[in-house]
Amino acid sequence: MPGRKSLPPDATGELWVFGYGSLMWRPGFEFIEQVPARLIGEHRALCVYSFDHRGTPEKPGLVLGLDRGGACRGIAFRVAARLREATVDYLRAREQTTNVYREVMRSVWLENETRQRVSALTFVVDRGHVQYAGRLSLAAQLRHVLQGHGRSGNNRDYVLSTVKSIEAQGFRDPQLHRLAAMLHGEP
After folding, report:
1. Where do the domains of the chain lie?
2. Beta-carbon contacts of residue 133 (< 8 Å; ≥ 6 apart)
3. How far apart are CA 47 and CA 156, in angstroms?
4. For residue 187, what pLDDT is reported?
5. Could you read off the pLDDT of 101-130 as tens digits, one per residue?
6. According to the 3-state scheme, what is the secondary structure of the chain?
7. N or C: which end of the chain has fewer CB within 10 A?
């Protein structure tokens, strides 16, 4: 697909990958280390209709995307140079089944003792894609999450696993935490 690949074909060396959703709790690739990290300029949002992994075109679920504005805490994974190409291929096969994301390199700040900035492979929502949901009400999010079931399982588990991973990192995502409470039947 034109414009999909942002990594130069001659890219070498270690690779950093920024995870903000299911990559935090199920990366699926080998890495040297994982470090809590922050990306500035985009925020985590349930803004992608899932027609594949967590829903179908007839009954779409909702998955996370990075959307414009704000900041996002997640995990940066450092991948060995020898695994760079295989990791990128794996992530493209996993994340780009419908090409709803733009594959970009973004600066992320590692939240460790060095506080260094690294360039990380990141999947940002394509606002022009048919699966871009935009900003939905909590009621609409709940409806899609409850109906969503795709080849990777049900949408409810995806949301609750992401919230659990966020909590394990020692922070909260207010919007996702409100949705998780609703999924548990809390007001």
Report:
1. 15-183
2. 46, 47, 48, 49, 62, 144
3. 15
4. 67
5. 999 999 999 998 888 999 999 999 999 999
6. CCCCCCCCCCCCCCEEEEECCHHHHCCCCCCCEEEEEEEEEEEEEEEEEECCCCCCCCCCEEEEEEEEEEEEEEEEEEECHHHHHHHHHHHHHHHCCCCCEEEEEEEEEECCCCCCEEEEEEEEECCCCCCECCCCCHHHHHHHHHHCEECCEEHHHHHHHHHHHHHHCCCCCHHHHHHHHHHCCCC
7. C
**Torsion sign (Cα): 154, 99, 122, 172:** negative
| Contact by Cβ (8 Å): 60, 148 | yes
The total number of residues shown for the chain amounts to 187
CA distance 65 to 35: 20
Dist. CA 139–CA 131, nearest whole Å: 18
Six token digits for residue 20? 């903000």
Tokens 């996702």 correspond to 176
Q: What is the CATH number of domain 15-183?
A: 3.10.490.10
